[in-house]
TrEMBL record:
GO biological process terms, semicolon-separated: microtubule cytoskeleton organization
Protein name per Swiss-Prot or TrEMBL: Tubulin polyglutamylase TTLL11
PANTHER family assigned to the protein according to its UniProt record, in alphabetical order: TUBULIN POLYGLUTAMYLASE (PTHR12241), TUBULIN POLYGLUTAMYLASE TTLL11 (PTHR12241:SF154)
Alphabetical list of Pfam families matching this protein: TTL
Molecular function as annotated in GO: ATP binding; tubulin binding; tubulin-glutamic acid ligase activity
Superkingdom, natural source: Eukaryota
Length: 338
């Protein structure tokens, strides 16, 4: 670590937050310019929606979304129209603030006229999405998958997907949303940073149990129930590739403005965190993409009020150490010289 900046060139620069942390003239940087902006909830929704308009069947893995406040009238009109054509349709919507992370500010509503929605959207841009009411459950709990994806280059487009990821579980048994249980975040929201505060959160030494497990352990469970795990993986790979294709045109614009072609400059790579939900029929749905997925391999435990210690998390370690190790092998600058 170089807290005061570094003057000597090096092969790989590993930055905390963004590409613009320093002036770098050579080597490889673990961030793309513009990536943080591109995967914000509103920008991601716009990029995917552009592709949905062009290729509706290929991009049916992203929930129906509206951007607030600008599309609020459209949201109200479309929901009313869908309800008129199918009176039995009783949807739930999830509102996600554009810049929010770790579950901050997310809430569920049943109707566009919800007071909370009309009050907050003017001050805080957000995406509102149709909530997936029939998720796949394991042990009666809803969960999502965090997969790690290495974008190694834009030209040519080169993508690697880690073979294992994390499954992050809710801490209360799932029930379909009703007006009574809408506010129960531990039942509906899979965010680790929310569920860790639940009394039911289980830190496990084992990849197959607890509130955070390896994705491979969940695949084993599904396979033993007779699920077609090969097809599931190929659907997930397809979702990842298509999402990155949707982001690529704008990423290239950012890239070329920061690193003009023909000039010597750094090359970029980046580890992205893809958050994916599985529906009951095993169809993967993209929830969001994270430009700075946490690489921590320990969690804080409160020993006594206000006194914390860091405890190693075997599940995080198993998955994340492999992700970083393989990333460094893939971008290894010495490889070409050998």
């Amino acid at each position: 670590q170089f807290p005061f900046g570094r003057r000597l060139p090096c092969d790989i620069y590993w930055h905390g937050v963004s590409f613009h942390d320093n002036d770098i003239f050579s080597g490889q940087v673990n961030k793309f310019p513009g990536m943080t902006e591109m995967v914000r909830k509103i920008t991601l929704s716009r990029a995917v929606r552009t592709m949905q308009d062009l290729f509706p069947l290929e991009y049916n893995f992203y929930p129906r979304s509206w951007i607030l406040p600008e599309e609020f009238p459209l949201f109200v009109a479309e929901v009313r129209m869908m309800k008129d054509s199918d009176p039995s349709w009783k949807p739930t919507f999830i509102v996600k603030p554009d810049g929010g992370c770790q579950g901050d500010g997310i809430y569920l509503i049943k109707d566009p006229s919800d007071i909370r929605l009309t009050g907050s959207i003017q001050s805080r841009p957000a995406v509102v999405q149709e909530y997936i009411c029939k998720p796949l459950l394991v042990d009666k709990l809803k969960f999502d998958i965090r997969l790690y994806v290495l974008l190694k280059s834009l030209e040519p487009l080169e993508i690697y997907i880690a073979k294992d990821g994390l499954s992050r579980f809710c801490t209360e048994p799932y029930q379909e949303p009703t007006l009574k249980n809408l506010h129960q975040v531990f039942m509906h929201l899979t965010n680790y940073s929310l569920n860790i505060h639940s009394g039911n959160f289980i830190h496990s030494d084992n990849a197959n149990t607890g509130s955070k497990r390896t994705f491979s352990s969940v695949l084993c469970r599904l396979s033993s129930r007779g699920a077609d795990v090969k097809k599931l993986w190929s659907d997930i790979i397809s979702l990842v590739i298509k999402t990155i294709i949707a982001l690529t045109p704008e990423l290239k614009v950012y890239y070329q403005s920061d690193i003009p072609a023909g000039k010597p400059g750094p090359t970029c790579f980046q580890i992205l965190g893809f958050d994916i939900l599985l529906m009951k029929n095993l169809k993967p749905v993209l929830l969001e993409v994270n430009a700075n997925p946490s690489m921590r391999i320990e969690h804080e435990q409160e020993l006594s009020p206000g006194v914390f210690e860091n405890v190693p998390s075997p599940v995080d370690e198993e998955v994340k150490v492999a992700v970083i190790r393989d990333t460094l092998r893939l971008v290894d600058p010495q490889k070409k010289k050998r």
